[in-house]
Amino acid sequence: MTDIVRENAVPPAAVKRGATPTQRMLQIAFARSDFRIGLIGFGLLVGLAILLPLVSSIDPVKIAYSSKLLPPFPAEGWKWPYLLGTDQLGRDVLMRCLVGLRYSLLIGVTTVVLMFIVGCSLGLYAGFRGGWADAVIMRLTDAQLSIPMIILAITILGVSRPTVPAIILVLGLSGWPLYARVARSVALGERNRGYVLGERVLGASDLRIMLLFVAPVVLPPIAFVAVLDIARMMIFESILGFLGLGVQPPTPTFGNVIADARKYLLNAWWIATMPGLFMLVSLTCLNLMGSALERARNAVLRGEA
Amino acid sequence: MSGPILAVSNLGVELQRAGKTRRVVDDVGFALAPGEVLGLVGEAGSGKSVLARALVRAISSPLEIVSGKVVFEGKDILSADRRELMAIRGNRIGFIGANPMGSLDPRLSIGSQIVEKLRSVKPGIGRAEAREKVLELFGRVRIPSPDARFHEAPFQFSGGMMQRVMIVDALVSDPSLVIADNITQPLDVTVAAQIIRLIDDLRQSLGTAFLFISSSLPVVAQIAERTLVMQRGRIVEEGRTEDIAANPGQAYTRTLISRIPPIWNNVSAPVATEAEAVLKIDNVTRTYRVRRRNTFNGFNAVKAIRGVSFTVKARENFGIVGESGCGKSTLTRLLAWLEQPDSGCIAFLGKDLSQLSSRSLTEFRKSFQLLLQDPYGSLPANMPVQRMIEEPLLIHGVGKAEAARLAQEAMAEVGLSMEFAERLPVGLSAGQRQRINIARALVLKPQLLILDETLSALDQVEQAELLDLFTRLQATHGFSYVFISHDLALVRRMCHRIAVMYLGRIVELADNATLFEHPHHPYTRALLSAMPTLEDNRFPRSRYLLDGEPPSPIELPSGCSFRSRCPRAQGDCQRIDPPLLVIDGGNAAACLHMHEALTEKETADVE
């Protein structure tokens, strides 16, 4: 029965170079409306965060007591150009949110890229090599996983100054073991595949096999899931900011803005709410994209596409 | 009881796909008498398995039964309702498939699964009675110590034992018909021969009729009285098996028979010649340490290769045969230097590979190449074909343009059309994929090619084409080949000298003619006797076929490791482990009593 089905299923048409699994995943994701919504929303936010502070004349850190605690746009008493109102020191909330979003994105994306590179290369190496390298790297990841992120953050950021690179380092340190584990488990499976053996016979070095053959199989699926991790890292960044371990004032970040605005929650709710809203929207967009990519990946792996 | 138990007439099955319909089974009609064994032969894709399923109406979309009648014990299966069908399928008609390892739930003991099956088709039977029945059948199919094995899980069984379990599963409800679909295909020759002998015994004692389906006429000829030949969904020939084999009436049957390579009758076996040595293996051993279960730090030593020595000469085809578990794959990995031997020496062109620096080893690798068995897994999935063939050259530092030119030359030489150059391997046939693999080896201009079951995934036609290709390449490039295979017919056709392996050791090493015509070792004879062939087997099964399976390589018998299955084991075999004893003409066998074996061979010839 299988013989017959196979005989009929052979597609005589040429399979072009383009139809790699990765590209099929992207095609499927693009066809989904949730992915498009996420992409458009996220694109708008990023565009705003990058461009608006550059072209606007409003300084997000300049104090102006004359215009303090102005409410946002539709409410009574709002004033142009403070669309989202001002805070207790008269600074524009919109601009502060956008600058906060900039830092949040910068830290989130850089951290994930760092975690991805470090975690995946270590995991790939461990899984592919096996033996001692595997044992050592995996015990290291276990050790790293056993340290809670917040304690690590307090220790490192409390001792040194909490600068942007330091924050990225802390978040990256606490996140890479997961990537290492996933990459290792996939690489373990690939290690004994026929094509790896074939390359060995041809005389290829381990590095060549890993980079040219195993990595293209192992990494793209992980990269898709990593999109979801950007959102997680953005949340961690604002938690650190809220605790006072993030980027230090006067630079506004989601975390420290919300922490400062807690005292004014009752009479000036917008100061704390607006950064929260920005976070909500950007994280939702990211998650929409991430989960659409993940579904597309599963569809491809199950052979539906 | 007279009259057929199964009468099929005008049966038609259609395949519907993308708006098109195709007849997969077309106007098939035959009858099967009680207790008869009917063979069904045809190439892959001729519709045999679909027919087998249609007989019990186990057909689902996109396939559809469009016409015909299947009358089983007076009842038309195709028009029966669900309840009637349930009373027949699995109860009056048993089914044995080609995948014994995948047929049972891996978590439950095999005994309980068969008891459950029996009780579901025959609700009247009590648990204890069902258990009795299953145990009795385990005994009849010669599963050793049935009481203990009743409680074991499927993974504890070897493929051959599992196929016996599947036979029990089919026979447990006392069916009057069993459909056996390609049951010997996944098994080693000796085990397959045991299974066939077993089925022959069973149907004589139980009076069950068998529909025996296989793609190989020699396999069917061992057991079936009558045979149907199927081509593209139609029965093209029907008759007594001997008549079909001796004078086929149809052109198709003649082609089928002409593709079966001869073993003894009019063969021109390749004759060994003298030449300088290319590969020299000297007393190589390889032992794996496997963690022992239920111990903290215990290891078992699996002796995969135990002191193997041989020499491959220039332009020679050297064959290595043996059943699964004999150490063939380990030896392959050692020969290709993917693993290193624990002791002993592998020398290529006079240089000991273990003494080479890693750089000169990489350089050396160009001259010995391995072709792998699995044509699907051995190619990277997202690389275009030409790039794949350039890959070995790029590894060894050839420039891009030069590599492209050489790759295109190689593609032409192995018969790959240039239109494949930019395509991914998806959708290429097994034969085309193996051609890519050959091209990848070829561009490096090797001197020795190791073929690890390279052709076993291909059908007869593709196999023959690739063998021609190998011969042509040998003539133009002067390659030496090492064929590692379980297929004796292939080895008979291609190899100058052949080594027979058993439990990690060479038990006989001889030139082609000696090995097939005057083998000295009892194991070689057993292998030959198990070989399905249309010719009169020179080593009749009643005399030479072995029982049981090889012992575990962890606990080898003392002395000669073959003695636990050897028909002529004597007291001294227990004490002395025979080395390869030289006979004459460079042939050798590892048997203390091989001269007795010789005399017995003479009596066999007289018979």
UniProtKB/TrEMBL annotation, chain B:
Where would you find this protein in the cell? Answer: Cell inner membrane
**Which GO terms fall under biological process for this protein?**
peptide transport; transmembrane transport
Q: Which GO terms describe its molecular function?
A: ATP binding; ATP hydrolysis activity
How does the UniProt record describe the way this protein sits in the membrane?
Answer: Peripheral membrane protein
Q: Highest taxon of the source? A: Bacteria
GO CC, any one term: plasma membrane
State the PROSITE patterns in the record.
ABC_TRANSPORTER_1 (PS00211), ABC_TRANSPORTER_2 (PS50893)
User: ABC transporter domain location, by residue?
Assistant: 6-257, 279-528
- Give any Pfam family that matches: oligo_HPY
Q: Which NCBIfam families match?
A: oligo_HPY (TIGR01727), PRK10419.1 (NF007739), PRK11308.1 (NF008453)
Please report the name of this protein according to its UniProt entry.
Answer: ABC transporter ATP-binding protein
Biological source species: Metarhizobium album
